[in-house]
Amino acid sequence: MSRRTEGKIAIVTGAASGVGKEDALLLAREGARVVLTDLNEEAGHALAREIGETALFVPHDIASEAGWQQVMARTEQRFGAPSVLVNNAAILMLGSVEDATLEQWQRVMRINADGYFLGCKYGVAAMKTGGGSIVNMSSVAALGGMGAFCAYSASKGAVAALTRAVAGHCKQSGYRIRCNSIHPDGILTPMTAAFLPGGAAALPEEAGGAEPMQRMCHPRDVANLVLFLASDESRFINGTELRIDNAQTIMGVA
Description:
CATH superfamily: NAD(P)-binding Rossmann-like Domain
Radius of gyration: 17 Å
């Protein structure tokens, strides 16, 4: 075991399932102490018990400023100042610009854009003395747009622009904080299963069992990239948009 995040304190939002769960498990295996946040308290506490003494679960609505204040306070109290923040929690709602309602738009933006702004705001405040890495989960929808997911595409575009703004601000301020965004084309998780033929039954049982040239990746594929960005191996990577899409974007196929 290489222990690539030894000594680091990581906060992972949306950690109770899917990509967030894989992120938390991998960061913990590589030596980090992890703070898991989610609205799903049962699954979140179960994951914390699975990881053990190096994990803490905090119930958390990422669009709540008071929620972020509590997460940061409990992280500091239990482990110390965070050095890694993975803004992962998000929602996905179907709706084109003609079909989506203002209520749907505002709900998606509240979580996917407001929640990430708050995460970055409080993450920078917590890290500006000791430094760290912020990893924001975006999407290829931020780069090319997805007509059937208007609000989601816009929210992920906001995440990409926010990432660049945070990276630039930290660089200009002399903070040793890096901020990068990850842009998957699609990930085989329970959230995306609802949009697949066959629903949840279409999800493979093992992360390594899928055809490597297919369009959608597994949570572990994303977690591997999160681990790299969280580690000191990526110390000179800052303000970047990292696609994990198996060349789908450059093929120009929506």
